[in-house]
């Protein structure tokens, strides 16, 4: 088997692992907030649990990225993270108190923080062989299939009136399946570093200047991209209060996300970072459509939102793989994910306040920050041309 075919097989295997993991924890996230309320938690507790979990989930990536580079134990750290990330989800079925459930929710986010930077390094080795955009795009598409299937699986259990514990318990199936495929992948491909061609001209002890410029652009994009909980809150305020309407809109966006990830990944391999600029231009329209129109306008807006998410969750990481040496890539992904997460958190907090004050200001803030990111991306494109 040629190295390119083996690398593609490796990308598919990792994509399947992510599909199972997303089905597991996204399925849990679709009901964990409601179950906290059933167990007696207040709205403040729900907000703090979700916020603290995300804070841990992003800030810890800085540490695990550094450790993975220092130890070169990419597989072991990835496996540890996936075990924590997925196994704690079925245990939520046994949580009889909200304190226990909240702790398990934070543990799940911790597991994701542990495995993400080293997993992205492993993926980058193979993606560079098959096409960085295509490799990361295919992985993201499979990832999002899981993000749709998990909540649908839980919804089916709840439709049978089996209750929230049964909804968590059923997720043991994708959790175990994903871990089995992960171990098989590690056995077949113990050293994915061999996939990456040695012709990449990436040198230097530290991270290059263009990485930090790029991180500034990414932070602007993240801070200006409105999170779905605020969108869901607004949709409920304007009358989309049927139990299935808002989740179905989210499922629509996740489906678009998967398709967009593949499409933008394909085009990235042909026109480079200009693909990300095009994605921003497409997604700029989601905020006015969602927050100023009715249900039909909101549906179109969510399609554009899904396009933006698909680009963010696939080709944003591709750029890092192309500008950072392999031996520094774990640290780079750790810094990248942490910066992205902090910017997303701060932007979301500010936009929540803007929503209470003025929807027009919220839309202006979202659109303006994403527009400001474009000159930074053009700058990166020019620097990249100079480095050829």
Report on the architecture of this protein.
This protein has 388 residues and is mainly α. It folds into two domains: 189 residues, Up-down Bundle (Growth Hormone, Chain: A); 187 residues, MFS general substrate transporter like domains (Growth Hormone, Chain: A), CATH 1.20.1250. Helix 8 packs antiparallel against helix 16. It starts with a helix and ends with a helix.
Task: Please tag this protein with its features.
single chain, 388 residues, mainly alpha, Growth Hormone, Chain: A, 2 domains, 0% strand, globular
How would you briefly describe this protein structure?
Helices cover 83% and strands 0% of the residues. It has 388 residues and is mainly alpha-helical.
Write the layout of secondary structure elements.
Elements: H1 3-38, H2 43-71, H3 74-91, H4 98-130, H5 132-159, H6 164-169, H7 172-188, H8 209-224, H9 228-237, H10 245-271, H11 274-283, H12 286-292, H13 295-312, H14 315-323, H15 329-357, H16 359-386
Q: DSSP strand (E) fraction?
A: under 5%
Helix content: over 70%
**Rounded to an integer, what's the Rg over CA atoms?**
20 Å
Count of individual helical segments: 16
The quaternary state of the protein chains shown equals: single chain
CATH topology of the largest domain: Growth Hormone, Chain: A
The global form is globular
Q: What structural class do you assign from the helix and strand content?
A: mainly alpha
Q: H/E series, N to C? A: HHHHHHHHHHHHHHHH
> Based on the structure given, which CATH architecture of the largest domain is correct?
Up-down Bundle
CATH class of the largest domain: Mainly Alpha
Tell me the domain tally: 2
Low-confidence stretches: none
Q: What does the main sheet amount to? A: none
Q: Termini separation (Å)?
A: 31 Å
CATH superfamily of the largest domain: MFS general substrate transporter like domains
**What is the mean predicted local confidence, pLDDT?**
86
Strand count: 0
